[in-house]
């Protein structure tokens, strides 16, 4: 069975630093390396990989940093994929972890095509049993599958928020590696870069929704809802009562006469959970409710209920999230 | 302009019957109706808009079981001109590596200016096949397009590729492979006339033997899969809720821990 | 009759259902509340060729048979009875032309009707001539010099009469009082811009509130003879033959309304918990839902069979259309009433759509011939056989 190492791809964020998802994947790689008793290696490819490589070295003992000037002004995925493909063919790790976001997918696709290595995608969990064992959530959460590679080498793309990033006890070392060989695949030039705020996704597509109901008491009260939503990177929703009272626009109404949503998290503030609202959000993966009334109907079908004043609890959650991010 | 759109039939989540076969954990495609993968519809819509503006036609390319013709008719009803279905018993249970090689082989035999693919599929796809197809065919690869602007006269295409900061503008010569995103615009509903017309549009079927598979001599298909599903289960039903009655700061701490435990943050 | 829909019929039905669920359903409550004709829905239906279903292919239509038109009306009516009526009225009012119009008339009007550019209404009923159609008093007098007809009178309860571009009007053209009752009327197409044509009022109604029900006045409206449909004196016959073929459209609306109400009630019964469990698990609720389902399915199958028989040219068309409309209308009223019952207090308020569906259902027992007229038709068909 593979004695190959665990490799992890370090993605570059726009400013040359290490992307968050790679800190998580690297933490996972380290855990797998401990379980398998094999080496863990990070690999960073970029025009100037030193900052990201240095950051990645906080998580894994050894990082290969490949300076590839072509990525400065060409679409990176294909180029990075070629460089990594050459290295993994040379060194034969058991598994290469990448992120499951756009950058990671592009790299995984190219590496797989060039090496013939299989890919396990969208991992929400990875353990080790003589090879990576990957858990995936499919069909919008209706099924969870467990899969493995059939061969000695493969690629796993890892979803965000699967592990909490945790630096290693002592930092690893960065090795500068010369980019070897010609790049044979077409390079696509970047002719312009634009910074633009993304268009807000419709509420039905939000992964997280923080919603306010009658308990919010007024449009001023919704500030508390908005701040918590912003901290969670989510959208703001509301019950019909709040909309009819004019505290928030109809576009954000959830329920029988509003929108039906299925987010990963529905956080209900001051919402009783009466049937006409319940039908709009009851299939959310996780439901958390904050309400003063322990007998509110929502307490019957939420996953977690906080009995308390939303004007105290919601800001406290917002603050706790902020300090967690900072620390 | 000729635009090939890679289209995959996937279980229709609205009908709710998706499940895996317990004997081999392959998708039980008979258990539920199939529909065009949602992200592929965005790619198809983008292709239709471009051929409407610049002239030309849209051709579908699918690798799937024989029942896929019904799903392809839905895509034809939207306005594609014709389609190619690669179907073979040996291909059942194909993994990403096989799918990439076979699609590359089929696409390689077609004439086109642009090839479009959706960002990923709703039946467990990871969005890695298009990059692989482009790599095997040596096509310029432009992914995560929010905007696609071909210049047929100059035989180039410009794409706005979405990134966390906004977008970068990529440019490549044709033929090129572009991955579409939902930012390109809502797919149209097929008109009733489109549905009727779809019945007489050409759908060509190819067996594995008819395709010059790209990427080496390794076998393709379910038997050669590089990955294997070990088990599948439904997530546990929602149990009784946990109730927190602590003061705000302590309650907040517990909520954050709960969210972290659930991988939401 | 083949006991399953053809592939085409199933494909068209599914396409209309998706359109209805995603684009029309979100508008239904607002259409009812504002009581405004939904032009956007009309454009949506036109843009997706749904309004072209009744017309022959040579005029740009889809040449749909009666069953296919009814499948579409049913799917739309599941979410919005007003919207379903748009297609049903196009079918109803076009039937005189389909059955008795000249090739010139069809070529003149069908292309724009098929494209949804023009709407058409059916003006038969009058204040003093409802069930008693032949008693119509609107008159059409011939101008001997030009051959034109001058129409004077008024029509009441005309669906979509205020938004239609073409109005099919039945007027008395009898020369003498000895003319037999059923030979008194003739049929004409009035174009809305013709001088003398006016909309006097729009009714405030219990249901289908977004569909304008108009009182139309005709004051010396000059109509060229080329706009006359069929022979002089053939109007009553055209009207009866039209209703024989159009009543299934109302049955389809009724079946759709019933199904929509059943869907809401079933979902509610699954989600609503009382006494510790979903109310669907209580026998009284379960039994109600079961009866609603069985009755709706029975009405649906009778409708489909009636359409199939009528499309095949069955000689007892009148009986088929009357039975399917009789059963479907009564079913819709019963099922929607029960749906409100299942939802209890929530069924009575506009938070849920069933109160609207119950108000909408009532009209299917009234227009295109009251249930009493349907029974008359059926009884006559039965006794005439002996």
Compute the CA-based radius of gyration of chain B.
21 Å
Shape of chain B: globular
Low-pLDDT stretches of chain C: none
β-strand percent of chain B reads 25-35%
DSSP helical segment count of chain B: 6
What general form of chain C does the structure show?
globular
Class by SSE composition of chain B? alpha/beta
Report the biggest beta sheet of chain B as strand number plus sense, adding barrel if it closes.
9 strands, mixed
How are the strands of the largest sheet of chain C arranged?
A: 1-4-5-8
- The structure class of chain C reads alpha+beta
Pattern of helices and strands of chain C: HHHHHEEEEEEEEHEEHHHHH
Mean pLDDT of chain B, to the nearest integer, reads 91
Please, what is the average pLDDT of chain C?
A: 96
What does the largest sheet of chain C look like?
4 strands, mixed
Helix amount of chain B: 25-40%
Query: Strand sequence of the main sheet of chain B, in spatial order?
Result: 9-8-7-10-6-1-4-5-11
Largest interface: A-B, 90 and 86 residues
The helix/strand series of chain B, from N terminus to C terminus, equals: EEEHEHEHEHEEEEHEEEH
Distance between the termini of chain C: 26 Å
The number of strands of chain B is 13
Explain how this protein is built.
- The complex is a heterotrimer of chains A (327), B (265) and C (386).
- With 327 residues, chain A is α/β, with parallel strands linked by helices.
- Chain A contains nine helices and 15 strands.
- In chain A, the strands form two sheets. In chain A, strands 7-6-5-8-4-1-2-3-9 form a nine-stranded mixed β-sheet, sandwiched between helices. A five-stranded parallel β-sheet of chain A has the order 12-11-13-14-15.
- The model of chain A has no long low-confidence stretch (mean pLDDT 93).
- Chain B has 265 residues and is an alpha/beta fold.
- Chain B contains six helices and 13 strands.
- Chain B has a nine-stranded mixed β-sheet, sandwiched between helices.
- With 386 residues, chain C is an alpha+beta fold.
- Chain C is 53% helix and 15% strand.
- Chain C has a four-stranded mixed β-sheet with strand order 1-4-5-8. Chain C has a four-stranded antiparallel β-sheet with strand order 2-3-7-6, with no helix packed on it.
- The longest helix of chain C has 37 residues, at 235-271.
- Chain C starts with 6 loop residues before the first helix and ends with a helix.
- The chains are: A alpha/beta (327), B alpha/beta (265), C alpha+beta (386).
- Chains A and B meet through helix 3, helix 4, strand 5, strand 6 and strand 7 of A and helix 3, helix 4, strand 7, strand 8 and strand 9 of B.
């Amino acid at each position: 069975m593979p004695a190959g190492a665990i490799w992890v791809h370090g993605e570059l964020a726009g400013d040359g630093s290490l992307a968050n998802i790679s800190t998580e994947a690297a933490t996972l790689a380290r855990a797998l390396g401990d379980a398998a008793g094999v080496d863990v290696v990070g690999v960073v490819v970029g025009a100037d990989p030193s900052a990201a490589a240095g950051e990645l070295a906080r998580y894994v003992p050894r990082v290969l940093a490949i300076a590839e000037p072509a990525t400065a002004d060409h679409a990176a995925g294909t180029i990075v994929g070629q460089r990594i493909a050459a290295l993994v063919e040379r060194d034969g790790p058991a598994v290469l972890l990448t992120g499951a976001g756009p950058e990671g997918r592009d790299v995984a696709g190219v590496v797989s095509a060039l090496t013939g290595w299989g890919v396990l995608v969208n991992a929400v969990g990875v353990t080790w049993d003589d090879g990576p064992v990957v858990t995936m959530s499919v069909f919008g959460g209706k099924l969870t599958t467990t899969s493995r590679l059939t061969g000695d080498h493969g690629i796993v793309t890892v979803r965000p928020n699967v592990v909490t990033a945790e630096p290693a006890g002592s930092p690893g070392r960065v090795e500068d590696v010369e980019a070897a060989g010609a790049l044979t695949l077409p390079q696509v030039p970047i002719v312009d870069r634009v910074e633009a705020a993304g268009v807000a996704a419709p509420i039905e597509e939000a992964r997280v929704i923080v919603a306010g109901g009658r308990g919010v008491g007024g449009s001023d009260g919704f500030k508390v809802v908005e701040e918590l939503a912003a901290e969670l990177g989510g959208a703001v929703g509301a019950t019909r009562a709040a909309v009819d009272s004019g505290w928030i626009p109809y576009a954000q109404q959830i329920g029988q006469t509003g929108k039906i949503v299925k987010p990963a998290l529905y956080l209900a503030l001051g919402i009783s959970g009466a049937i006409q609202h319940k039908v709009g959000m009851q299939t959310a993966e996780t439901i958390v409710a904050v309400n003063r009334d322990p007998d509110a109907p929502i307490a019957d079908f939420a996953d977690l209920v906080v009995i308390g004043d939303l004007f105290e609890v919601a800001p406290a959650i917002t603050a706790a999230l902020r300090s967690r991010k900072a620390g | 302009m000729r635009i090939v759109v890679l289209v995959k039939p996937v279980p229709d989540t609205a009908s709710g019957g998706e499940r895996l076969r317990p004997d081999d954990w392959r998708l039980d495609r008979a258990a539920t109706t199939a529909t065009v993968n949602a992200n592929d519809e965005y790619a198809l819509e983008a292709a239709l808009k471009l051929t409407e503006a610049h002239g030309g036609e849209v051709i579908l390319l699918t690798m799937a079981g024989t029942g896929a013709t019904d799903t392809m008719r839905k895509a034809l009803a939207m306005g594609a001109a014709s389609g190619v279905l690669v179907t073979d018993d040996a291909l059942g249970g194909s993994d990403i590596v096989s799918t990439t090689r076979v699609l590359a082989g089929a696409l390689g035999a077609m004439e086109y200016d642009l090839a479009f693919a959706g960002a990923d599929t709703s039946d467990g796809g990871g969005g890695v096949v298009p990059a692989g197809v482009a790599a095997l065919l040596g096509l310029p690869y432009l992914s995560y397009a929010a905007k696609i602007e071909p210049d047929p006269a100059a035989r180039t295409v410009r794409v706005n590729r979405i990134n966390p900061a906004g977008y970068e503008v990529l440019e490549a010569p044709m033929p090129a492979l572009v991955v579409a995103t939902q930012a390109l615009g809502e797919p149209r509903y097929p008109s009733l006339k489109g549905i009727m017309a779809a019945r007489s549009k050409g759908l060509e079927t190819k067996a594995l033997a008819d395709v010059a598979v790209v990427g080496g001599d390794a076998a393709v298909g379910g038997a050669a899969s590089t990955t294997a599903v070990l088990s599948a289960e439904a997530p546990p039903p929602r149990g009784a809720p946990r109730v927190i009655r602590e003061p705000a700061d302590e309650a907040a701490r517990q909520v954050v821990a709960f969210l972290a435990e659930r991988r939401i943050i | 009759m083949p006991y399953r829909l053809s592939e085409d019929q199933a494909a068209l039905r599914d396409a209309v259902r998706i359109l209805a669920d995603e684009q029309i359903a979100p508008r239904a409550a607002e259409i009812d509340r504002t009581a405004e004709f939904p032009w956007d829905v009309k454009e949506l239906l036109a843009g997706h060729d749904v309004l072209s279903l009744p017309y022959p292919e040579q005029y740009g239509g889809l040449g749909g048979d009666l069953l296919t038109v009814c499948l579409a009306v049913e799917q739309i009516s599941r979410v919005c009875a007003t919207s379903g009526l748009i297609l049903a009225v196009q079918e109803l009012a076009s039937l005189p032309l389909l059955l008795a119009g000249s090739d010139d008339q069809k070529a003149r009007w069908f292309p724009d009707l098929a494209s949804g550019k023009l709407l058409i209404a059916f003006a038969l009923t009058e204040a003093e001539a409802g069930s008693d159609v032949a008693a119509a008093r609107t008159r059409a007098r011939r101008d001997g010099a030009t051959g034109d007809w001058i129409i004077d009178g008024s029509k009441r309860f005309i669906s979509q009469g205020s938004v239609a571009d073409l109005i099919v009007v039945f007027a008395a053209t009898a020369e003498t009082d000895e003319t037999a009752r059923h030979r008194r009327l003739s049929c004409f197409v009035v174009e809305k811009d013709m001088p003398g044509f006016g909309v006097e009022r729009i009714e405030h109604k219990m249901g289908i509130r977004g569909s304008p029900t108009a009182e139309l006045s005709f004051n010396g409206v000059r109509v060229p003879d080329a706009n006359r449909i069929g022979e002089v004196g053939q109007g009553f016959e055209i009207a009866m033959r039209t209703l024989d073929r159009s009543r299934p459209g109302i049955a389809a609306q009724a079946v759709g309304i019933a199904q929509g109400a059943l869907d809401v009630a079933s979902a509610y019964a699954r989600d609503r918990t009382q006494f510790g469990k979903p109310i669907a698990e209580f026998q009284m609720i379960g039994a109600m839902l079961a009866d609603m389902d069985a009755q709706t399915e029975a009405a649906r199958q009778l409708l489909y069979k009636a359409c199939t028989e009528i499309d095949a040219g069955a000689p007892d068309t009148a009986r088929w259309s009357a039975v399917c409309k009789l059963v479907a209308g009564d079913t819709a009223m019963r099922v929607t009433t029960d749906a409100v019952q299942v939802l209890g207090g929530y069924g009575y308020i506009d938070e849920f759509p069933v109160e609207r569906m119950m108000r909408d259902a009532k009209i299917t027992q009234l227009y295109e011939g009251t249930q009493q007229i349907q029974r008359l038709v059926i009884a006559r068909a039965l006794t005439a056989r002996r």
